[in-house]
Design brief:
This protein is an alpha/beta fold. It has a single domain, classed as Aminopeptidase, CATH 3.40.630.10. The protein has helices at residues 9-13, 17-26, 30-38, 51-63, 72-88, 153-172, 200-208, 235-240, 242-255, 273-277, 305-320; strands spanning 91-101, 106-117, 124-130, 178-184, 218-222, 231-234, 260-266, 282-286. It has a six-stranded mixed sheet with strand order 1-2-4-3-5-8, with helices on both faces. Strands 6-7 form a two-stranded parallel ribbon.
């Protein structure tokens, strides 16, 4: 994702009256959410989300090495991710597209994947993460290493791992609502001089699915696996879709998950930004207090199954119980 200081003006515009009207029409009114949350069932799901299983998916991605676009590891990893989704989802679609990278000096083939659960349902939510890793470690303390691609255990691997483990769960217990899981490519190809390189996959997704009804809301996962994670409200998420932020963080409270904290700590642009720009309710779940970001220290040693499990439990509860839809 881009740095916290760079939040596009379109995100600020999305917080105005047209946004509020669309929220009421397509998403969940705050008052209705409040009523629904008070009546949420508090009994545990039949099968709990397994943080260790999610961790194994981080490890499997890391084993491919850096998954930077334009590399053999990138293509091999994508094949493994898609194969897993096809074992679990009702429908899996793949979309290939291209991006001419000025930094790498070549045309890159990028690939998004979309897994659909209960495709017959008109009311749907979109859960997403980027699966590519950064082609250069521009924040590494060693200047000699800054032009080498990162392994991206947390930044790239963690969100995908949670979604793949969730997909396995949804195979065994169908969700109460239509669920789409998207894996975005080309999130991390931008620079300060070329911000257009960021979020290539999520931008493409909106073009690809332009003829389809929008989801009720979008939850993007990014850097959700670090040890002792603390997930605060992301500023653009809270400004543009406060009711969805409240839904997720109140669910965390109901589940007793200490990793989720109230209040805005960072305001950043990430793969949720294109959706906000398109006036689709979208939030980012991220712990941006991550010194290893865009360095070679973002490896498997930073990942904690407990953090992955906390995020996975919330998503699992949101899509398998879906009590907020009663109103």
């Amino acid at each position: 994702m881009s740095s916290p200081a760079r939040s596009a003006s379109r995100l600020r515009r999305a917080a105005g009256a047209p946004w509020l009207r669309r929220t009421l029409r397509h998403a969940l009114p705050a008052a209705a959410l409040a009523l629904a949350l008070t009546s949420c069932a508090r009994t545990p799901s039949a099968e709990a989300f397994d943080g260790k299983r999610a961790y194994s998916w981080v490890a499997r991605q890391v084993a491919f090495g850096p998954r930077a676009p334009g590399t053999a590891a990138h293509d091999s990893c994508f094949a493994a991710l898609v194969a897993s989704l096809r074992q679990n989802a009702d429908i899996v679609e793949v979309d290939s597209f291209h991006y001419e990278s000025p930094e790498l000096g070549k045309d890159l083939r990028l690939m998004n994947a979309l897994a659909r659960f209960r495709p017959d349902q008109s009311r749907r939510v979109l859960l997403a993460a980027h699966w590519d890793t950064r082609p250069w470690a521009d924040r590494d303390p060693d200047p000699k290493l800054r032009d080498r691609p990162i392994i991206g255990a947390n930044d790239g691997g963690s969100g995908v791992a949670v979604l793949l483990a969730l997909a396995e769960h949804l195979k065994r217990r169908a969700p109460a609502i239509g669920v789409d899981i998207a894996l975005f490519d080309g999130e991390d190809l931008g620079t300060d001089k070329n911000p257009d390189g960021y979020f290539r996959g999520s931008k493409r997704y909106l073009e690809w699915r332009a003829g389809q009804p929008p989801p009720l809301f979008v939850i993007v996962l990014d850097m959700v696996g670090k040890k002792d994670a603390s997930f605060f409200w992301e500023g653009n998420s809270y400004r543009s879709a406060p009711n969805i932020v409240v839904l997720v963080w109140d669910k965390a409270r109901d589940l007793g998950l200490r990793q989720f904290r109230n209040g805005v700590k960072y305001t950043i642009a990430d793969d949720h930004a294109p959706f906000i720009g398109a006036l689709i309710p979208a939030i980012d779940v991220i712990d941006f207090d991550f010194p290893e970001w865009h360095t070679h220290k973002d490896d498997l040693s930073v990942i904690d199954p407990a953090s992955l499990e906390a995020v996975g439990r919330i998503l699992q509860s949101l899509v398998t119980d879906a009590d907020y839809l009663s109103n």
